[in-house]
Amino acid sequence: MATAHSRVAARFMISPAVLLLLGWMIVPLSMTIYFSFLSYNLLMPGMEEFIGFTNYRFFLTDPAFFAALANTLLLVGGVLVITIVGGTALALLLDQPFWGQGIVRILVIAPFFVMPTVSALVWKNMFMNPVNGLFAHLAKAIGLEPFDFLAHAPLASIILIVAWQWLPFATLILLTALQSLDQEQLEASEMDGANFGNRFIYIVLPHMARAITVVVLIQTIFLLSVFAEILVTTNGGPGYASTNITYLVYAQSLLQFDVGGGSAGGIVAVILANIVAVFLMRMIGKNLEA
Amino acid sequence: MGKISLKNVTKAFGEAMVIPSLDLEIEDGEFVVFVGPSGCGKSTLLRLIAGLEDVTSGVIEIDGRDATEVPPARRGLAMVFQSYALYPHMSVRKNIAFPLKMAKMDAAEQERRVTSAAKILNLTDYLDRRPGQLSGGQRQRVAIGRAIVREPAAFLFDEPLSNLDAALRVNMRLEISELHQSLATTMIYVTHDQVEAMTMADKIVVLHAGRIEQVGSPLDLYRSPANRFVAGFIGSPKMNFISGAEAGKHGAHTIGIRPEHLALSTTEGAWQGKVAVAEHLGSDTFLYVNVNGMDPLTVRTQGEAGIHHGDTVYISPDAEHLHRFDASGKTI
């Protein structure tokens, strides 16, 4: 199969696709890099000039940047913890035989099909609203003061909303991993004297390690760029309390019309994402081998 | 000690009765083989003894104590699975030590037992490998190692050799027999292969559709099968069955005669027939002979018979080794 001839042919035949993808990536990236070195404000068209690293210096010394960086990491980490722990627990439950299993599984997967803006609005207006929200009614019913989630715990609220969206994805992947576990291994460990907890720690969890790795990697990619949920709920506020890097770049370029500064922020975000990726691959990438 | 007795044990999966009421005594130190065609309930019976399935009714006693409701881990039995069921993410050492770790045994004692098990099973050089890096026979040995470190009252084997190639199967068969000699622990072994049953067992239990057809030593079953099913299942090549007029002469509905008890001649004999296929094995020759008015007969002759396809031969049954069955298949 893999003769020298067939390898050359294979390379030749995939090259159009590779070139197209490369161009698709390289053109916007180089334009962004180019803009990031310009003083480029939408309110002053035609005044663009080369200013070197000034945009980067302003972006990286802005106190908002450090707040946004911390928020981004908290958001990604918080959602990952909730979805992995919750997803494993749900997968274990759904793996048990019970009546109506098919319908329950579809219900569990449903949140994944709701678009982020809609789910954020539903959470904001129907659950977390301090006057009309369900949580406010519940609090009043037991005689408590309603809690204004988005004003007093904006980041935690957004973590909750995003985790609710991603929980089905984690559950689905972890459930399929759980179902691929050889039943004889579980029976063997039962004969070997392992109780439920030991079976989970020594047999089930190692078996699921690869699936958990996949969930962490895929979710991290998407969670670094959470945007819609912030835009429709808190607008990054109060102050910078719920601004992440993505939202900060948006605010810089489109609220302050500073395209140059926004581009510099975008490049910083790309670099940060790559640093996170390298760390992730170092830590858990070895699970994907073999 | 490993005396196991089953009293009126039944097992049903929903409506399907897999094992109708069954009684069985297994003595301490015996090598018992459950044998039968696939779907006869032999694996289910083993899983009932292991505790991996609950009995529908009846009692399982281990060493005189009622173990029917005891969870698998506390029955003091160890099981070797058909797929070996090794833990893929653990080294061989950790696989073998797993039951000891679960029993919270101290590390030094664990190490001592693992080392001695590895020595018995020739696994010392492989202790730090993962199961994925081992051959089929080595994995089989690891599975056995994981069973013996627990020093169980009895070993349960569920078709352990069916994933191995023919040559390895013969080797492992010998190793398991030797292991039984040296440990002298009760072993219960499930197989569909009557050769494994004949070569390894002290006592064979022939199962058919969840019922015990016959229990006895290998040669008992070979010499005096209780019915037509056992007669046909034990022995290779299969026993020939002849019914109709020829059987009537011997006062039976069906007569059975093993291929090795048919005398072959090229000049004279009771039945005349034509050779359809001749299999020359060197030590033996198997002939498949078409005789008028009968099903094809299998004949086994020792050495190299100079007989080929299409030859006319005469066959005479050895009257001493003739088995007679009535209409319901029972031996007369």
**What is the C-level CATH assignment of chain A?**
Mainly Alpha
Count of alpha and pi helical runs of chain A: 13
Number of helices of chain B: 9
End-to-end C-alpha gap of chain A: 23 Å
Count up the domains of chain A: 1
What is the N-to-C succession of helices and strands of chain B?
EEEHEEEHHHEHEHEEHHEHEEEEEEE
Stretches of chain A where pLDDT falls below 50 for ≥5 residues? none
Report the C-alpha radius of gyration of chain A, rounded.
24 Å
CATH H level, superfamily name of the largest domain in chain B: P-loop containing nucleotide triphosphate hydrolases
Structural class of chain A comes to: mainly alpha
TL;DR of this structure?
With 290 residues, chain A is mostly helical. Chain A has helices spanning 4-36, 54-61, 63-94, 101-109, 116-127, 134-141, 149-152, 154-179, 183-191, 196-223, 228-233, 245-255, 259-284, and strands at residues 38-39, 49-50.
Characterise the protein shown here.
The complex is a heterodimer of chains A (290) and B (332). Chain A is an all-alpha fold. Chain A has one domain: MetI-like (MetI-like fold, Orthogonal Bundle). In chain A, 73% of the residues lie in helices and 1% in strands. Chain A has a two-stranded antiparallel sheet. In chain A, helix 5 packs across helix 8. Chain B has 332 residues and is of the alpha+beta class. Chain B folds into 2 domains: 4-229, Rossmann fold, CATH 3.40.50.300; 237-325, Nucleic acid-binding proteins (OB fold (Dihydrolipoamide Acetyltransferase, E2P)), CATH 2.40.50. Helices cover 27% and strands 32% of the residues of chain B. Chain B has 9 helices and 18 strands. Chain B has helices at residues 42-50, 92-102, 107-120, 136-148, 166-183, 194-200, 218-223, 228-233, 245-248, and strands at residues 4-13, 16-26, 31-35, 57-62, 65-66, 77-80, 154-158, 186-191, 203-208, 211-216, 240-243, 254-257, 262-265, 271-280, 284-291, 297-302, 312-317, 323-325. In chain B, the strands form 4 sheets. In chain B, strands 6-7-8-3-9-10 form a 6-stranded mixed β-sheet, sandwiched between helices. In chain B, a hairpin with a 2-residue loop joins strand 4 and strand 5 (65-66). In chain B, helix 2 packs across helix 3 and helix 2 (92-102) runs parallel beside helix 4 (136-148). The longest helix of chain B has 18 residues, at 166-183. In chain B, 40% of the residues are buried. Chain A binds chain B through residues 182, 184-185, 187-194, 198, 202-203, 206-207, 209, 290, and chain B through 50, 52, 71-74, 77-79, 81-83, 85-90, 98-99, 102-103, 132, 146, 150.
